[in-house]
TrEMBL record:
Top-level division of the source organism's lineage: Eukaryota
Source species: Oldenlandia corymbosa var. corymbosa
SUPFAM superfamilies membership: Glyceraldehyde-3-phosphate dehydrogenase-like, C-terminal domain, NAD(P)-binding Rossmann-fold domains
Coiled coil: none
InterPro entries tied to this protein: Gfo/Idh/MocA-like_OxRdtase_N, GFO_IDH_MocA-like_dom, NAD(P)-bd_dom_sf
Residue intervals of the GFO/IDH/MocA-like oxidoreductase domain: 148-261
The protein's name: OLC1v1027010C1
Length: 361
């Protein structure tokens, strides 16, 4: 494969999120949508037609057929979480680089098996946490790392919720214990936890305590929950995730000198522009009539969507491995594993009656 040649992607599974990522694969100049497979040829054909796949896209009636295609260099896996272990491991064994939908596994034990398969087969692993690839993200981190204007990080708050309709609550994959047993914690809480870890440079908390009174359906799957995370140096973070509240995607980080805030951290309101609000060295105005200086809003424009930028970064890493003999970038598996550790700790705290859970890496 020549340097710069677009990476040929295969998609295994036709979940709704694959509509967004398949579009991103088509948008990225470093990738091409080469193949899609589902459990039936009819479903794969319909999915490809409904999402305007190129006429040259290979259509397969099984996941195995995509993995067996020698032209497929990388696979995007949007399958239910319970199927990730089997298919991600098989993809790695067949030397396919893996972009895996989140949550990446049902437990860190399962994820470790996936990551070991990727490592032993020399393939790149990345989870599909899309907001991390938006150009807004490094600009926000630059502010968080500014000792003069932000200072020492003290607290974080994150929430990701949406009010799911009745048919979702009753029938969606994400509320089925045999498909996505982590429910809202895995689907939405993953983003909140990742944002918190991103802000602290992936320093794991010492303790996690789940919030009381989570909402759980009749099958034992979480519909809403939350937790608090505690660090030895006094940092604290709280998050809430829910299928039963109005759509919110808030993230706030507060330091000794400044505050960062945004209300669309998972999916920006607009594809071509995203903003964040920051404040530094705020204090009361004269006679306590308000406060100053005023918060400032900062816009960040992008020519490509955050999903396409994710695909572009992944494709760049894969191309480097294929053409230059580079090693896979190990930071992405680390980010995924630390996020999964916190997901597991929250679930364990809920299962144990909201006891504090020590986080052990």
């Amino acid at each position: 494969m020549a340097a710069g040649e677009p990476i040929k992607f295969g998609i295994i599974g036709c979940a709704s999120i694959a509509q967004k990522v398949s579009r991103a694969i088509k948008m990225s100049p470093l990738s091409t949508l080469y193949a899609v497979g589902s459990r039936s040829l009819e479903k794969a054909t319909t999915f490809a037609k409904d999402n305007d796949f190129p006429e040259t896209t290979k259509i397969y009636g099984s996941y195995e057929a995509v993995l067996d295609d020698p032209e497929v260099y990388a696979v995007y896996v949007p399958l239910p979480t319970s199927l990730h272990l089997k298919w991600a491991v098989l993809a790695a064994q067949k030397k396919k680089h893996i972009l895996l939908e989140k949550p990446v596994a049902l437990s860190v034990e399962d994820l470790d098996v996936i990551l070991e398969a990727c490592k032993s087969n020399g393939v790149q692993f990345m989870d599909a946490t899309m907001w991390m690839h938006h150009p807004r993200t490094p600009q926000m981190k630059q502010f968080l790392d500014d000792p003069e204007n932000f200072g020492q990080l003290k607290s974080m708050y994150s929430t990701f919720t949406f009010d799911a309709p009745p048919h979702f609550i009753e029938n969606d994959i994400r509320v089925k214990p045999d498909l996505d047993a982590l429910g809202a914690l895995g689907d939405l809480g993953w983003y909140c936890i990742r944002a918190i870890l991103w802000a602290v440079d992936y320093e794991l908390p010492n303790t996690v305590i789940a919030s009381r009174n989570p909402s759980i359906n009749g099958s034992g799957v979480l519909l809403s929950c939350g937790a608090s995370l505690y660090w030895e140096d006094g940092k604290v973070a709280t998050f809430v995730c829910s299928f039963q509240a109005n759509m919110t995607m808030d993230f706030t980080a507060t330091g000794t000198n400044g505050t960062l805030r945004l209300d669309d951290f998972v999916v920006p309101v607009a594809e071509n522009k995203a903003s964040f609000v920051k404040a530094a060295k705020s204090w009361w105005a004269k006679r306590l009539l308000g406060w100053m200086p005023r918060t400032s809003e900062h816009d960040v424009s992008t020519d490509l969507t955050q999903e396409a930028l994710m695909v572009e970064e992944f494709s760049r890493l894969v191309n480097s491995i294929k053409t230059e003999g580079s090693e896979p970038d190990t930071k992405w598996p680390v980010y995924s594993r630390k996020t999964q550790l916190i997901v597991d700790a929250v679930k364990a705290s809920i299962d144990k009656g909201f006891e504090p859970i020590e986080v052990v890496s």
